[in-house]
Amino acid sequence: MPNYDYECQKCGKRFEVFQSMNDAKLKDCPEPGCGGEVKRLLGTGGGIIFKGAGFYQTDYRSSSYQAGAKADGASTPTPAAPPKSAD
Questions:
Q1: 21 within some domain
Q2: Which residue range forms the structural domain that includes residue 24?
Q3: 58 is a domain residue
Q4: CA 11/CA 31 separation, integer angstroms
Q5: How far is CA 77 from CA 53, 66, 73, 74, 80, in A?
Q6: pLDDT for 5-26, tens place per residue?
Q7: Any domain includes 7
Q8: Is 11 part of any domain?
Q9: C-alpha to C-alpha distance for 19 and 2, rounded to whole angstroms
Q10: Is the Cβ–Cβ distance between 35 and 28 less than 8 Å?
Q11: Which of the 8 DSSP states describes residue 26?
């Protein structure tokens, strides 16, 4: 559920509300004694939160792309390890 920013048109108070996308917009200022009308502000949107061990660019690619990537990986030579120095 996203957070929505609101601003009172009467007192200018800005506040944030955590509500469902299906909930109706707020209409009245929560400030005691104000009673002004509030307007929902346009925000930058919520960030995506990835949970888990890791996410990679190739996780959601098509099977044909994955097959091509495997073929490219198999034909690419691996670099040789640097020689160890004798002490």
A1: yes
A2: 3-40
A3: no
A4: 9
A5: 29, 19, 8, 8, 9
A6: 999 999 999 999 888 888 999 9
A7: yes
A8: yes
A9: 6
A10: yes
A11: P
